[in-house]
Amino acid sequence: MKRLILATAVAGMFMTGAAFAADSYEIDPTHAWVGFKTNHAGWTKAHGAFKAVSGTISFDKADVTKSTVEIALEAASVDTNDEKRNTHLKSPDFLNAEEFPQITFKSTSIEKTGDKTAKVTGDLTLLGTSKPVVLDVTWNAESALPWDANTIKTGFSATGSFSGADFGIAKMADFGIGPDIALDIDVEAIKK
């Protein structure tokens, strides 16, 4: 009986350790940059960014495939360096920020591609439509803040792309932009 209790306790410790192998992080909104660019009538690439970014990361360093990420962007925070254009992008012609205030990405699978790289597949939800998007992600570094040893920060960079038409942004072609939108993401996240 004592052996059974001891075996159960040991098994419980291992199962608990496995369950808590991933560390939890919260994206630091003051150190998060989500940029995008798209063709502008063949002249150049038009650039923009979302200024309000939040999210969480569950990062399992021992088995990155068990990690998860969720990111939310406030559609009304779009910034393209021109207020008139920003207002138009927030309208029903493009992001329809009033009806769909958030753009989200939730990971569904992760494939390790190198020591610090992975392909993260997730559901991008934009204008009420969810479609899979693949991001190429690099884990940059993790360390304590130089002025606060109790605060651990980790950082990631990611790139990817999607077609605006797939999400119902039908007016892109009317304004000579797109069809693809390239993403450039850098986030720092604080360990909870």
TrEMBL record:
Residues 24-190 form the Lipid/polyisoprenoid-binding YceI-like domain. Keywords: Signal. Residues 1-21 form the signal peptide. The keyword Transferase does not apply. InterPro entries: Lipid/polyisoprenoid-bd_YceI, TTHA0802/YceI-like_sf. The keyword Signal applies. PANTHER family: PROTEIN YCEI. This is Polyisoprenoid-binding protein. It comes from Aliirhizobium smilacinae.
